[in-house]
Amino acid sequence: EDFLNLIFKAMMKDSLNSSHPVSSAVQSSEQIEEMFDALSYIKGASLLLMLKHYLSKDVFQASIEIYLRNHNYGSARSDDLWDSMNEITNGTLDVKKLMKTWILHKGFPLVTVVRKGKVISLQQEKFLYRVEPENWTSDASYLWHIPLTYITSRCNLTHCTNAYLLDQKSGM
Length: 172
Fold this sequence. Notes:
Elements: H1 2-14, H2 29-35, H3 38-55, H4 57-71, H5 78-89, H6 95-103, E1 109-116, E2 119-126, E3 146-151, E4 161-166, E5 170-171
Antiparallel strand pairs: 1-2, 2-5, 3-4
């Protein structure tokens, strides 16, 4: 419950146009300090949980083990973690490409789902809680690679969850 409260507070802050990406190039030590705030840590943890759920616990765990083994007693960049995950997924999913849309954009997407009969349509756009005129920038070009999971009425005991990657503004 406490973690959910932290996530919701971070999402509220991230839904403002004054937010910042989890990862960005820095020019000074002051910018480094600004990057490591509660938003970065909580959003980062949420993104890792999202990825763990999408990849599966076993794939995620194996990726982390490779990452730690490859970079023990050394330094690493975020791309190194994504590369470890790409190694485990054998190129079936470009984790680096997926995650860059989340860590390099500020904010998060709003996904609208519309069902007409048996047809489901999806659309994504940047969610803004409140527009702050002094910090306004157009984010119309933002596009996230959104891992979605769903269950259909054809669910059986061995396979219930399906996955879909929304990597365009809209999809079906």
